[in-house]
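Progress report, Aim 2. The chain analyzed during this reporting quarter is listed below.
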Amino acid sequence: MPWWGYLIIGIIVVLLGILVALFVVGRKLQRRQVEQEKQMKAMAQTVSMLVIDKKKMKLKDSGLPEMVLEQSPKYLRRVKMPIVKAKIGPRVMSLIADGKVFESLPVKKEVKVVISGIYITELKSVRGGSVIAAPKKKTFLDRFRKGKDSGKKTAQKSSSNSKKK
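Predicted structure tokens for the chain:
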């Protein structure tokens, strides 16, 4: 067998080893995530609160307690997180929201949410209205499709205006 054959076999063995290692680590992380979700559901409370402000900001700028900052992984300290400033009873608190909940939370309104620690997991209801669905993000291609549709509509309007005259 030529030397490049051994090289290819060696590369395949190394890649298979990496694949097996990723599989084992992935299963371990998945089990840990399931356990954390169980704990969050066990600690969940429904709370009525007034949303003062919501922003995406870094953890160190968010006004969260120092203990939370110390316990968070280093890579999360630099990432912008969805932070909600809310008044719960007499206290004003900074909370971390789930991404889907953050988009649909109205500002300057009273809402009922499910909280687990300092994490907002679910939006139950909005006072004086119903829960607003989170707006869908437009993809890159949607911008061009919309442009084509609006061009057809303006052409139809101009042709209908010319027919009326």
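The longest helix spans residues 3-43. The chain is about 50% helix and 25% strand. These observations will guide the mutagenesis work planned for the next reporting period.
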